[in-house]
Structures are given as C-alpha cells and as structure tokens.
Amino acid sequence: MEPPMPRSNTDFLFALFETQRMLRLYADKLAAQHGITRAQWAVLAKLERTEGLKQSELADMMEMQPITLTRLIDRLCGNDLIERREDAKDRRANRLYLRPAALPLLKKLARLRSDITEAALGHLNPSEADDLVRHLESIKDNIRDALASADKKTKEQRYG
Questions:
Q1: At what angle do helices 7-32 and 38-49 cross, to 10 degrees?
Q2: In this predicted model, what pLDDT tens digit does every residue of 27-53 receive, in sequence order?
Q3: Domain check: are 87 and 160 in the same one?
C-alpha cells in the first residue's frame, strides 16, 4: 500500500480549481457591468494582442468550438466592436479585426483586469506576488511537459 500523499499536495488541485472558478465568477460580474460577457472579453483581448487572426485560429487558441465562437463574433460584430474581413489568400476564410469602437472598451477592460489582479493579490506583498506568478509559470511548464510526454506515449502505443 502506498503512503498517503502529504496534505498540501492533495489540496493543490482543489485550491487551484476553486481559485479559477472564483476568478471566473468575479470577471463575469465585472464584464457584465460593461455589457459584455467574459467570453466576449476574451475574444477582444486575443484580437487586441493579435489582430487579423482567422476564426479557426482563434477557436483553436481559445479551445472553443467554431460554432460557439461564431456566435460570439456575430454579437461583437453586431455591436461594432470587431469586423470580419475576407482573407486575401483564402476566400473561404475570414480574418478578425478590432473596430474603433472597441478601443475605449478595451481601456476599461484593462482597468478591470487590474482590479481583478489587485483583488486576487491584495494581501500579498509585491515580492510574494512575483513569486506566485513565477511558481504558476513553472507549474504551467511542468504540465506542458507532462502533456507532451503523454502525447508521445500515446503515439508510441498507437504506432509502436
């Protein structure tokens, strides 16, 4: 029989998932004050960083079904926040761009992002906050490595 895991390890996933859930709820409330959803906010944020994405590229980045993303984009287009433009090289594809009306909203959303960060890290000093982010990045790297390893093993089992 294996020895029990230390309590800190057994609580890790619960704490992480619960924190993520609470952050999502808080972001939902703040986004709603500006008449958008968190999902719409995420689309705008991705396009702010990388305009000109194809809808299919954005769906992959957001790990979202294309039909779900299409509905979000339809709403954002209807509110004059983004626009679809035909891809010059592929007539079947649309590329997504921010409209001028999105810029004031993006400034407000940047403030909301700061408010969420302040609420989440409010009881930590700057050094503790930096350490936390560094640790989370390390955890993310560990998980990325584990996923790559699992993918490799799956392929080996399938073709080996």
A1: 90
A2: 999 999 999 999 999 999 999 999 999
A3: no
